[in-house]
Amino acid sequence: xxxxxxxxxxxxxxxxxxxxxxxxxxxxxxxxxxxxxxxxxxxxxxxxxxxxxxxxxxxxxxxxxxxxxxxxxxxxxxxxxxxxxxxxxxxxxxxxxxxxxxxxxxxxxxxxxxxxxxxxxxxxxxxxxxxxxxxxxxxxxxxxxxxxxxxxxxxxxxxxxxxxxxxxxxxxxxxxxxxxxxxxxxxxxxxxxxxx
Length: 196
Prior knowledge:
By secondary structure, this protein is α+β, with helices and mostly antiparallel strands. Helices cover about 30% and strands about 25% of the residues. Strand 5 (about 100-105) and strand 6 form a beta hairpin.
């Protein structure tokens, strides 16, 4: 699973499955780095975003929302961000395993944003959030990670009339995994918990 999101619905669904099935042992590894399920011996992975074509089986479990945010202290250091061009020339926190370029939508409009100033590169969502909170720049972060900080004013939603595409939450598994029946039961339980 991704290394972030300990409070999110996916983790709660895993804990619920573990409580309901006390005879099933679960080994959960959190990592924001892509892995090879077969080579690394995993029965199932939870992936966020857009899935690449592969020989793996997959099932969509839910949806994943993000917002472009920064801290109020970062806004104090620069002119107001009023346009997409203003945004493009802000300082950004880059996340190593994600492309820096991203798309924003407003109604029928779609605009690609390519940050011109990468202030800092990190290798996890948690580190990116920490850097954004420290006033070092801007990044689009998962709603589950930032909703408390947005509500408390510790983070600010930049250009709220624009939004990021909704991404999927997917379970991915090898078709011939050794625990095929149990894996499918686990995935079905996650899907039900996430959608309820």
